[in-house]
Amino acid sequence: MADLLVTGGAGFIGANFVRHWRRAHPADAIVVLDALTYAGNPTNLADLDGVDLVVGDIRDTALVERLLVERGIDRLIHFAAESHVDRSIAGPDAFVETNIMGTHSLLKAARAAWLDRGTGRPHRFHNVSTDEVFGSLAPEAPPATEASPFAPNSPYAASKAAADHLVRAYHRTYGLDAVTSFCSNNYGPYQFPEKLIPLFLLNALHGLPLPLYGDGRNVRDWLHVEDHCRGLEAALLHGAAGESYALGGGEEQDNIRLAQSLCAGLDALFADRPELARRFPDAPPARGRATAALLHFVADRPGHDRRYALATDKARDRLGFAPRRRLADGLAQSIAWYVEAEAWWRPLRAAA
Questions:
Q1: Least C-beta-crowded within 10 Å: which of 5, 141, 306, 351?
Q2: Which residues form the NAD(P)-binding domain (predicted)?
């Protein structure tokens, strides 16, 4: 019988979490519920045993309730979301439907399966949120904490904040055992190529422009996805019901500096591995040029938040969480991974 349901488990963070859980808890069976929209990729899980992929929509309350009851699932971790800010600006309806209505559907199913049926079984609903719900921080402001007021500035962030409020309400009103975690910008393997790091790396390999919004000085706090997964595991297993935990990377960097680091890292990798010039002949280092020559500035997006950052004191003190991977090391590993994962990303670029 399965005892863990992972929504959105074929996406970037979800798939990395499934992989982490499989390594850390090999005896557990895992059910992944994913609608396999553009960012959900079944190949992210294809090499794993003991993972049952169910293709379905989190808004299908009856399906979720049936999975929880019939498969004896007592833990649910919720990743499924529309998450790209640019897409939320162009089409906010999908974000309201998936992030708000979808989360409410899951909560209704969890309440029906775990509370209304009167089984009395211990359970846990883990809601995975984002630092964007806290809005933009001033340059000298301290990092946001779990007690910081919500101030979302994009349709994406607003939809996630609404979902977080629903999770809190189901805990307070119905007694659902629920926790929420907030994370800073993730990076690492299997990230869909619309996000900054894989977008820049893959564009660079093809000699395409690397577009920086505005002046490139927007600051983000970066957290390697594997560190995030360790924090998620700790919160899922040991977090207190009704509490929230900020899982930050402690690695603030503005976008232009991050982009320059990616460019320099790719140049260094090409210098160390001359065969890459044959595989990627359009990449600037294959032609004796610096990758940074591809960087250019484009018009800023509407409502672009200037800075995000999270304080991790509570997660450190109560969960023992602390990131292990420094950004410089994580970027080098990510560059190497994407260069070697050509069979993974080529179909995604072809379908874009």
A1: 351
A2: 5-332
The CATH code for residues 4-191+222-252+306-325 is 3.40.50.720
- The active-site residue, picked from 57, 74, 82, 132, is 132
pLDDT tens, residue by residue, 192-222: 998 999 999 999 999 999 999 999 999 999 9
**pLDDT for residue 85 is more than 90:** no
132 catalytically annotated = yes
Residue 187 annotated among the catalytic residues of the structure: no
The candidate with the shortest Cα–Cα distance to 221, out of 184, 179, 276, 260, is 184
Instruction: Indicate if 156 belongs to the active site.
Output: yes
Per domain, the residue ranges of the chain are: 4-191+222-252+306-325
User: HSE-up of 330 (CA within 13 Å, CB side)?
Assistant: 22
> pLDDT at residue 324 above 70?
yes
In whole angstroms, what separates CA 156 from the centre of its chain?
Answer: 13
275 vs 123: CA distance, rounded Å: 52
Q: What is the pLDDT of residues 275-306, one digit of tens each?
A: 999 999 999 999 999 999 999 999 998 989 99
Catalytic residue among 65, 74, 82, 156: 156
Which among 186, 184, 191, 201 has a CA at the least distance from the CA of 332? 201
From the candidates 131, 177, 221, 251, which is the catalytic residue? Answer: 131
Distance in angstroms (rounded) separating the CA atoms of residues 339 and 277:
12
Residue 121 has pLDDT above 90, yes or no: no
